[in-house]
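for the writeup, i need someone to sanity check this before i put it in the appendix. the sequnce is what the collaborator sent (i think, or maybe the updated version? ugh). structure was predicted straight from it, no edits. if anything looks off just tell me and ill rerun, i have time this weekend
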Amino acid sequence: MGLVDMKEKVAKILGGFLERNKNYAVEIYINNVVKNSNIGKIFITSDSVYNADDKGFTLEWDKDENFDVRYNKFSIPYDEVVACYEETDQEDNLKISETAIVILKNGMEFDFECIGMRI
């Protein structure tokens, strides 16, 4: 898949996920797919904004001193992405959970999940 195709795919999947969940906090679960292990997570407040430019996808949010928020910017360079897709758990016609997943060349996986809270 070419860089332009991956850019469009990431912008559509991740941008769509963030747009649908724009009023809620999101967590990014960081995993190592090579070792099949969880590394950590990043908490993103509900005031986040995202931008998709020619080089990558960037997500920014305000730091809130009431929560353990140490960083407020997360970037994904398109030329490092090998896969981007969505997973949805449904029961009948009710969507229970939705995850946007991005996997990089170095084996890092980022799972974006809405936590259903407005923070």
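Helices lie at 3-20. The mean pLDDT is 85.
thx in advance!!
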